[in-house]
Design a protein that fits this description.
Number of strands: 0
Distance between the termini: 68 Å
Low-confidence stretches: none
Radius of gyration: 23 Å
Mean pLDDT: 94
Structural class: mainly alpha
Number of helices: 13
Largest sheet: none
Strand content: under 5%
Order of helices and strands: HHHHHHHHHHHHH
Length: about 290
């Protein structure tokens, strides 16, 4: 039955005095969080707040993605596959949220964006150190990217550290080696500061896992989780590209890139190429 006056009854046990107690706002530090949106356009343009919140929210999710992926990598190193896959499963849900967020930014029309784009200077999503950190953890290493962050010692140190560490794929291949799979020694001892490149010798190993899934169920599941991870990442990249194209067409990026054509090249990058190559081999005569 609806309330007589359309007002919910106030529970007398609800806490209202927070002079000496932690509140929702203090726990989340909302005063800091909600004061971090500072438009720079003059006069302030209505749609700049959308632009800022879109990117700040993305950075918060990237912080969690990085937290989960680093944990998954460490768990693989410790042969703890099930909890590692749980971390990856959480990342997959975050990725879907990040991809859907582009639909909000896509409501920003070219005319609306042009009203404040000139105030952004050379700031660009290309300079997101957390995005680069996620790429590094997944295996798309690129030492040249460090130069973008030379003016930010903390970001530079983070990326330099991740450059020197094994990626999540490196740790998965080492896990498979310890589980008895014939991973080439060249991959176990490779220079982890370089991006992983396609290694044909891995394809028969993954084919065996896929074609005998009941015997290698944990490894089979892990392969599919990694494929999901890359698929989701590529979908995010594609939605990014299409949103940029919709908003600025073929203009150059504020950070100096070629804009859409630069983003298009990112779609050619891969994290786990053998996990996609094996699909051509499965079910064909050996």
């Amino acid at each position: 039955m609806p309330a007589d006056d359309n007002t919910r009854e106030f529970d007398p046990d609800i806490v209202t005095d927070f002079r000496k107690k932690m509140s929702y706002g203090s726990y989340l530090d909302l005063e800091t969080l909600l004061s971090a949106q500072r438009p720079v356009s003059e006069p302030e343009h209505h749609d700049e707040l959308l632009f800022i919140i879109q990117h700040q929210t993305t950075e918060l999710w990237l912080k969690l993605v990085l937290h989960e992926l680093q944990s998954a990598r460490d768990l693989l190193r410790a042969d703890q596959l099930p909890p590692a896959l749980k971390r990856i499963a959480r990342v997959k849900h975050i990725q879907r949220t990040l991809t859907e967020q582009w639909s909000v930014l896509a409501t920003l029309t070219p005319t609306e964006y042009a009203e404040f784009r000139g105030f952004l200077g050379n700031s660009s999503g290309f300079q997101s150190y957390q995005y680069r950190a996620v790429e590094f953890v997944l295996g798309n290493k690129n030492r040249r990217m460090l130069s973008v962050f030379e003016s930010d010692p903390a970001a530079h140190a983070l990326l330099a550290g991740l450059l020197d560490e094994p990626s999540i794929y490196d740790e998965f291949l080492r896990y498979l080696h310890r589980a008895g799979f014939a991973i080439p020694s060249s991959l176990l001892d490779r220079d982890v500061t370089e991006a992983h490149t396609f290694t044909p010798e891995l394809v028969p190993i993954f084919r065996d896992i896929y074609e005998h899934a009941s015997d290698h169920w944990a490894e089979y599941e892990a392969c599919e989780e990694l494929v999901d991870l890359e698929d989701n990442f590529q979908l995010w990249r594609f939605r990014h590209l299409k949103t940029v194209q919709r908003t600025i067409g073929m203009k150059s990026g504020t950070g100096g890139s070629n804009g859409v054509s630069f983003l298009q090249k990112a779609l050619e990058l891969t994290f786990f190429p053998e996990l996609f190559a094996v699909r051509t081999e499965i079910g064909t005569p050996q």
